[in-house]
Design a protein that fits this description.
It contains one helix and 15 strands. The longest helix is centred in the last third of the chain and has 4 residues, at 128-131. The protein has one helix at residues 128-131, and strands spanning 2-4, 9-12, 20-28, 32-41, 58-64, 70-71, 78-85, 88-95, 109-116, 119-127, 140-150, 156-160, 163-165, 171-174, 176-178. It is mainly beta and 181 residues long. Helix content is 2%, strand content 52%. Strands 2, 5, 7, 8, 11, 12 and 15 form a seven-stranded antiparallel sheet that branches. The protein has a five-stranded antiparallel sheet with strand order 1-3-4-10-9.
Length: 181
């Protein structure tokens, strides 16, 4: 499990743990990479749709399946966004690098959520075939979760686990997760 708190601020400012923090857990089988995110956020802002969901409170998962650095907008890399809907269990999803589309429409990504008294939870699954990866014990996956926060006063912040801009323009090094039994 990955814990994101004020020590992982990429941009903006987090007032305290009630402002924003989260825990993301992963599991897998031969078909899916599963994730469960618990996010504490004192002020949910959830109004946008499609490719604009990144401007709301949202969970993002970045993937570099080729392990050669994630390049912005390269179709073999992934920036997947998951935004809760306060009225429904469905999650608004978006995949920016694959031409901008909702991967839940193809059932490549499945996610449900609910809003809690102090944030939200998202439970989801991503098909390995969508990520163009073959899972097996010991597989190292270059990936990084991030949580975007926007408050009612329009201040923003983003917590990112590991996301380092490399010397080559547009190339980002992501964190690494190993699949185990």
């Amino acid at each position: 499990s990955i814990v994101l708190n004020e020590h992982f601020v990429e941009t903006g400012e987090i007032k305290d743990q009630t402002d924003l923090q989260g825990t993301i857990r992963f599991a897998w089988d031969s078909t899916y990479l599963y994730f469960f995110a618990e996010v504490q956020d004192d002020s949910l802002f959830l109004i946008r749709s499609k490719g604009e969901i990144w401007r709301d409170d949202l969970l993002e998962l970045f993937f570099d399946p080729d392990a050669d650095g994630m390049f912005w907008n390269r179709p073999s890399d992934f920036q997947l966004g998951f935004r809760v809907d306060p009225r429904l269990p469905e999650v608004k999803t978006w995949s920016w690098f694959q031409g901008g589309r909702d991967p839940s429409l193809t059932k490549d990504v499945i996610a449900k959520s609910y809003v809690t008294g102090n944030g939200y939870r998202i439970e989801g699954a991503i098909k390995w075939s969508y990520l163009k990866m073959t899972p097996q014990p010991g597989l190292l996956i270059n990936m990084t979760p991030a949580i975007h926060d926007i408050d009612q006063d329009q201040t923003e912040a983003k917590l990112t686990w590991f996301y380092r801009n490399e010397k080559e323009e547009g190339r980002f090094q992501l964190g690494q997760m190993e699949l185990t039994n």
